Amino acid sequence: MECPKCGTWNPDDRRTCWRCGAPLPKPQTKKKRSQLIFMNLPLWVWGLLAAMFLFWILSRFLY
Ligand SMILES: [Zn+2]
Predict the structure, then answer these.
(1) What mean pLDDT is predicted for residues 39-55?
(2) Where in the sequence is the domain holding 57, given as residue range(s)?
(3) C-alpha of residue 32 to centroid of ligand 1, in Å
(4) Section 2-26 average pLDDT
(5) What is the pLDDT of residue 15?
(6) How many independent structural domains does the chain possess?
(7) pLDDT exceeding 90 applies to what percent of the chain?
(8) How far is the CA of 23 from the centre of ligand 1 (A)?
(9) For the chain, how big is the Rg over CA atoms in Å?
(10) Fewer CB under 10 Å: which end of the chain, C or N?
Protein backbone atom coordinates (compact mmCIF):
# COMPACT_ATOMS: atom_id res chain seq x y z
CA MET A 1 0.00 0.00 0.00
CA GLU A 2 1.07 3.62 -0.31
CA CYS A 3 2.01 5.64 2.74
CA PRO A 4 -0.76 8.16 3.50
CA LYS A 5 1.88 10.67 4.61
CA CYS A 6 4.59 10.58 1.96
CA GLY A 7 3.04 8.37 -0.71
CA THR A 8 5.87 5.83 -0.71
CA TRP A 9 4.88 2.28 -1.55
CA ASN A 10 5.21 -0.19 1.31
CA PRO A 11 4.71 -3.93 1.46
CA ASP A 12 1.29 -4.91 2.77
CA ASP A 13 2.72 -6.66 5.82
CA ARG A 14 4.50 -3.53 7.06
CA ARG A 15 2.84 -1.57 9.83
CA THR A 16 4.98 1.55 9.46
CA CYS A 17 6.37 3.34 6.44
CA TRP A 18 9.95 2.34 5.72
CA ARG A 19 10.76 5.84 4.58
CA CYS A 20 9.11 8.25 7.02
CA GLY A 21 8.04 5.88 9.79
CA ALA A 22 4.41 6.93 9.68
CA PRO A 23 1.95 4.26 10.82
CA LEU A 24 0.20 2.56 7.93
CA PRO A 25 -3.50 1.69 7.95
CA LYS A 26 -4.27 -1.94 8.46
CA PRO A 27 -4.74 -3.86 5.24
CA GLN A 28 -8.32 -4.79 4.56
CA THR A 29 -8.84 -8.41 5.43
CA LYS A 30 -11.20 -10.67 3.56
CA LYS A 31 -11.79 -12.96 6.48
CA LYS A 32 -15.33 -11.74 7.05
CA ARG A 33 -16.54 -13.48 3.92
CA SER A 34 -14.85 -16.76 4.78
CA GLN A 35 -16.48 -16.73 8.20
CA LEU A 36 -19.88 -16.55 6.55
CA ILE A 37 -19.11 -19.26 4.01
CA PHE A 38 -21.73 -21.44 5.66
CA MET A 39 -24.34 -18.81 4.88
CA ASN A 40 -23.18 -18.56 1.27
CA LEU A 41 -24.28 -22.07 0.43
CA PRO A 42 -26.39 -22.38 -2.70
CA LEU A 43 -30.12 -22.35 -2.18
CA TRP A 44 -30.54 -25.94 -3.38
CA VAL A 45 -28.25 -27.13 -0.58
CA TRP A 46 -30.55 -25.55 2.00
CA GLY A 47 -33.53 -27.04 0.16
CA LEU A 48 -31.93 -30.46 0.24
CA LEU A 49 -31.16 -30.13 3.94
CA ALA A 50 -34.72 -28.99 4.63
CA ALA A 51 -36.11 -31.91 2.61
CA MET A 52 -33.92 -34.39 4.48
CA PHE A 53 -34.97 -32.86 7.78
CA LEU A 54 -38.66 -33.05 6.88
CA PHE A 55 -38.22 -36.64 5.71
CA TRP A 56 -36.52 -37.48 9.00
CA ILE A 57 -39.35 -35.86 10.98
CA LEU A 58 -42.01 -37.67 8.95
CA SER A 59 -40.23 -41.01 9.31
CA ARG A 60 -40.19 -40.50 13.07
CA PHE A 61 -43.97 -40.10 13.09
CA LEU A 62 -44.81 -42.76 10.51
CA TYR A 63 -42.77 -45.59 11.95
ZN1 LIG B 1 5.81 7.46 4.49
Answers:
(1) 90
(2) 31-62
(3) 29
(4) 92
(5) 92
(6) 1
(7) 59
(8) 8
(9) 25
(10) C
Distance 31 CA to ligand 1 centre (A): 27
Interval between CA 38 and ligand 1 midpoint (Å) = 40
For ion ligand 1, residues whose CB falls within 5 Å: 3, 5-6, 8, 17, 19-20, 22
Residue 21: inside a domain: no
50 inside domain: yes
The CA 18 to ligand 1 mean position distance, Å, reads 7
Angle at 56 between CA 53 and CA 58, to 5 degrees: 110
In a domain, 46, yes or no: yes
Percent of all residues in the chain with a pLDDT value above 70, rounded to a whole number: 78
Q: Assign 3-class secondary structure to 1-63.
A: CECCCCCCECCCCCCECCCCCCECCCCCCCHHHHHCCCCCCCHHHHHHHHHHHHHHHHHHHHC
